[in-house]
Amino acid sequence: MNWLRKFFDNQRRHFQPGGKWERWEFLFEPTEKFLFGWQQLTSGPPHVRDSLNVQRYMVFVILALLPCLFFGIYNVGYQGLLAAGRPAGLWPSILLGAGKVLPLVVISYAFGLGWEVLFSYVRRHPISEGVFVTAMLFPLTLPPTTPWWQVALGISFGVVIGKEIFGGTGRNFLNPALTGRAFLYFAYPVQMSGNAIWTAVAGSGRAVDAVSAATPLAVAASGTGPVEKALADAGYGFAKLFTGLYPASIGASSTLLCVAGAVFLVALGIASWRIIAGGAAGILATGWLLNLLAGPSAPAFWKLNPVFHLVMGGAAFGLVFMATDPVSAPDTHAARWIYGLLIGALTVMIRVLNPAFPEGIMLAILFGNVFAPLLDYMVVALRLKKRIPNV
Prior knowledge:
The chain is mainly alpha-helical. Helices cover 63% and strands 0% of the residues. α1 (2-15) packs antiparallel against α2.
């Protein structure tokens, strides 16, 4: 790689102020950082002794997301082969899943990076590494049957409307990936809701776009008897729900992989354990409260064991990878606890009290994003109020 290092060293002068390619410096610097890491050193104090810069931060998040992506590829193919009545071996599942999932990921990156490059050129600032995480998160929240043009439209809306119009990375108050996902859900509800969108399958003899297979959340929302029994009868035991091997969004179903990702990110100091723990506590507490309030005539969903709310759908994925977004989440420790509790409570309430929207985590996080600045303000104001009498 010495020849590549020398090439960048020789060309850098052309991209510096006064160089003939000065206007393209916003592309040169991120590319060099991506290939060789951060080369800038300080010659005098103060020295920053933490190696976790923005670039490494985003790389670690993507590394934590890769298992969810690989599992999603396998699960999409596995569910498709099962629905087609064909043997669901490892490699046939991976090949079918890759054909369904990878185009969505490529489109997400192509349009997400395209918008980021355009705004970086207009504003004359380097490309933000945050778009790499956004472009990975967005397709993992989608059904595998999502049309390609909707993927392009959704990531464009998330990057432009959810981030760039507010000034770019660091100034957006909503999670861009969830903003794009919410836009698609409300703009195209037919392709984003129902039971017929979660299993992409190619049938023998003719092409079938999708089959209708009820998801665990749909089973729980429509059950009239004990929900745990209804889930077990549908083939959704606790172990299957925890591993995520059921029809769902591409990469958000495996609680097991989300827990592993949470351990990885928290250990590196990237994700806030307070937000994750607060979200889990909010889900469990709200589910337990509904259990207490459920009378004989209450819907069966009210009586569901609260632990099932954590392992069904995208609750764990949202808490680990979405709610902990450092830009749209609170900064103070106390506010992070409240923020997590709010998201967890809203998730269960939306699931149980709104039959038309059985998931809940997406809207709960977006509501939490809106309240995050207020929570920080309240925490700081209370601390200052306690200090003033002692000054």
